[in-house]
Amino acid sequence: MPKNTHATHIRITAAVEGFRRAGIAHSTEPTIYAVDDFSEEQLEQLHKEPRLVVEFVEAPEADQADNEEGAVGPDGVGAALKDMTVPQLKEIAAAGEIVGFASMNKAALIQAIEDARAAQIAQAEA
Questions:
Q1: Which SS3 state, helix, strand or coil, does residue 5 take?
Q2: DSSP of 68-112, one letter per residue?
């Protein structure tokens, strides 16, 4: 996968807190990095990993507003889950140890993943 020449940054969200790829422990909270921080090989590795949501973004300042508590913009994490296929969502659910994911439809998978992420955040804040 060649570097995206239009975007200057990449936003990465993990299905599981601390999931490691490309030498970084990724968070379930969206994190923004400069595209140039990664080699071509690392970008491809990140992009192909089903347990990561990888999005190319223009400017980190504009995207930080999307990350405020409770806010999910049209290009935020919620939109990324909606854009995924059922098999991709099931991989995330399996990695997140979501019970009963195998029989869930797309809407139920998205809700279960979002609920699991919210529970993990609440637990970390407690």
A1: coil
A2: STT---TTSHHHHHHHS-HHHHHHHHHHTT-TTGGG--HHHHHHH
The CA distances from residue 80 to 6, 23, 39, 105, 123, in Å, are 19, 23, 23, 16, 24
Per-residue pLDDT of the chain (126 residues; tens, 9 = 90+): 444 457 788 888 888 888 888 888 888 888 888 888 888 898 888 888 888 888 888 765 544 444 444 444 444 445 478 878 888 888 888 877 888 988 999 899 889 888 888 887 777 776
Query: What distance in Å separates the CA atoms of residue 28 and residue 14, rounded to the nearest whole number?
Result: 5
Supply φ then ψ for residue 85, to 5 degrees.
Answer: -80, 165
Three-state SS for 33-76 is: EEHHHCCHHHHHHHHHCCCEEEEEECCHHHHHHHHCCCCCCCCC
pTM over 0.70: no
Give the count of beta carbons closer than 10 Å to the beta carbon of residue 96: 21
Residues paired with residue 53 on neighbouring β-strands, in sequence order = 13
106-125 and 86-95 helices, crossing angle to 10°: 30
